[in-house]
Amino acid sequence: MRGLAFRDEGGGQSDGAEGTPPPTAARRPRMSWQKLTFLPVVLVAVLLATWLWFEQAELDALTRNALSDGRVSKALWQHIELTAISTFFVLIIAIPLGILLTRRMFRRASPAAMAFANMGQATPAIGLLALLVIWLGIGRRAALVGIIAYAVLPVLSNTIAGLKANDPTLLEAARGIGMSPLGVLTRVELPLAVPLILAGVRTALVLNVGTATLATFGGGGGLGVLITTGITSQRMPVLMVGSILTVALALLVDWLASLAELLLRPRGLEAGR
């Protein structure tokens, strides 16, 4: 029995194949060149066509006054500021609150917190802004509070949903190898919940761009100034500039958020895709 040897057919070929690693499937890129270029090209074409139309259009004195002296760039910059600041505060409020409400000690408070967040979005934006102006006075602060209250819900609900959707066996396995509660949260729970959280952030960003147009009614500025000026003065060119810039900004923000959603998604979650 000691001298007996077992050998497969074609053993000479198997010896050479032992050192060859198995072929691996090529990793697909996270985004295609079409996704990177299509929307920016469309936006550039639309903005260029708008600019060329204004160059050859005959504008009256009131329209020229509404669009001159840097008023358009000032309104655009104010709108970007309103969107960026409100989104920052939405993130630092909604994500930590969502994490807290999924911990065992605070789970009972989750329905009350969600009901409160639903109230912020269920209230008509213009009515909420009017109430905040009465309370806080005219200015950017009232507009920011209104925008934040309106955009908290999607980030909060997606954070809670993403953390609750985690497989309990994975969390138990992480605890079983000695990971602390903070380690389980930061290294297991949050990475698995990233896709849902980023989807909520993307929704909140687009909501903020749209809601920021109403900031003009509270003295907050933004592209809403051009839109309301065009409506009240019945000057369609002014209305067109404000509307086109608002739509272009919303589409650009959504495109950037979609890229961030792809880039920040953990690669381990792409297995089997």
From TrEMBL:
Pfam families for this protein: BPD_transp_1
Keywords of the record: Membrane, Transmembrane, Transmembrane helix, Transport
Membrane topology note: Multi-pass membrane protein
Entry keyword annotation includes Transmembrane: yes
Listed transmembrane segments: 36-54, 82-101, 113-136, 142-163, 211-231, 238-257
GTP-binding is among the record's keywords: no
Cellular location(s): Cell membrane; Membrane
Main location as per UniProt: membrane
Residue ranges, compositional bias (Basic and acidic residues): 1-10
Domain ABC transmembrane type-1: 76-257
Region: Disordered, residue numbers: 1-27
The family this protein is said to belong to: Belongs to the binding-protein-dependent transport system permease family.
Designated name of the protein: ABC transporter permease
Organism from which the protein derives: Streptomyces marokkonensis
